[in-house]
Amino acid sequence: MKEKLNCVLLIDDDEPTNFINELVIKKANCTHKIVAKQGAREALAYLMSQEDGEHPCPDLIFLDINMPAMNGWDFLEEYRKLDEKQKGKIVIVMLTTSLNPDDEEKARGIKEINDFKSKPLTKEILEEILKKYYPDRF
Hints:
By secondary structure, the chain is an alpha/beta fold. The protein is built from 6 helices and 5 strands; from the N terminus they run E-H-E-H-E-H-H-E-H-E-H. Helix 2 runs parallel beside helix 3. It has a single domain (5-133), classed as Rossmann fold, CATH 3.40.50.2300. Strand 1, helix 1 (15-28) and strand 2 form a beta-alpha-beta unit. Strands 2-1-3-4-5 form a 5-stranded parallel beta sheet.
């Protein structure tokens, strides 16, 4: 590994899922920071926030589809409205338990979604994503 990612953002309403995903990512030692948000609204607020005058701009987002109040699709609608500085150069991976083939097809038609994977996040899935989207780092 040449250079770690700055930040990975986890968006899932299920706290145990975020916990497991964090463990997989920590074990891979591939990022300086992991931020877990238990909902799309909370994640959007995080992306719009500023720290030392800068927006957080994670490198990688793992996004669940089925969440209460605001689902993954709704998140993407709002994400599109963000300023480019708030979006950064983010790779978005839908990480879901959805077995509906329509969801995967819909995801393929959304330019902001880079990949679609089934839960749970595993070491193998993470390594595949890192090598595919960050080949110069991993």
